[in-house]
Amino acid sequence: MLEVTPTPAPPGAEEQSRANLVMALVRGFVAALVFGLGVFFVIDALSLWIQRDDNCGWWLVAASRAQQVPRPSLSLHPSQRVSLGDTVTLCCHLPQLASRIQLCQDQHLTSCMDKYEMQDVADFYITTKREHAGTYRCQYQVQKSLKTSEKSDPVELVVTDLSFPPPGISLSPGGHVGTGTNITIRCWNKDYGATFLLHKDRCSAALQCQHPDEGGMATFTLFQVTPTDNGTYRCSYLIKGYFPLLSSPLGDNVTLEVTPTSAHPGAAVESHRNMVVAVAGGCAVAFVFIPLLIIFFLLTTRRCQRLRDKRHGAPPRRPEAVQLQVPCSDSDCLTYVELQAKPPTTRCPGPPADPQPPTIYADVRTGGPH
């Protein structure tokens, strides 16, 4: 068992802490700035959209999309650890009724399999041989228009040939390490290995792939490992000179155990302080940008309202009273104000009677008494 003892903080820890604090403030400011610019452009785009009257472009895009045939999807069952002689199922999932479904292998385009008059899903069964290892895609034709869809995304069928020897494996610096250590895993097979794959137990897909050197050895590196990297690792290789996805069996395993290392006492406090400062800086910048965005939104809304009024020919508003100015001929200035002669009443208003009520002009003297 490898024991890891905590080391004291290096002399430059205080300078590093200050640098981290400055970086946190800068990141908070940049994040708020990017957010503000994003909201600005979104509001501006919405204002332009309100002013737009012509929607023909959207109809054309919708019509072109409606004419396209949806692409199918392809899945493989089982998807891992398929050996020679096993039966696999390739399922082509159809978005609509199809008159013809075709499954092809990329390496052998002439050897395709067809099914007819299928809906929802078309299943293709293969009893694996060496030549079946490869990449597959499917496509279909629509029953009425006979249009052909695009090919599905590729699916790889890796077939394991147990007649080939498994690769060797080694782990350094050891199986028990502390957090943050770089781990090197080496796999080798000099005679048959074209590409080596690194596997981890309980993971369906390979973690990494590497080409070997002249001695037939491939090197994998796990940087800055943490306890999440704990597990059992194995290697396999794709066999050179044969079909591209014909694989060797898995080799021996190595086990990695990562123990967490304790940080120096002030690390948690410093991290919390940096987080608080970053949040405070972001909030301060947000308080600056939010009022500006609100003002811009109100101005944009007012501009759009004016444009809509002009477009619909809205009449200008009539004032309740019209004030008439008469130039003064002497020191007694008179102002005529049009008043509506409507005596107060408590009864419900009825339809207006003819003729209209007379207009009364009041003589208002603005000068002093005579």
UniProtKB/TrEMBL annotation:
SMART domains from the UniProt entry: IG (SM00409)
Transmembrane stretches, start-end: 21-43, 275-301
Pfam families attached to this UniProt entry: Ig_2
Biased composition (Pro residues): 349-358
Residue ranges of every copy of the Immunoglobulin domain listed in the record: 77-160, 172-259
Chain residue ranges for the region called Disordered: 344-370
Keywords: Disulfide bond, Immunoglobulin domain, Membrane, Signal, Transmembrane, Transmembrane helix
Protein name from the UniProt record: Immunoglobulin domain-containing protein
Organism: Gallus gallus (Chicken)
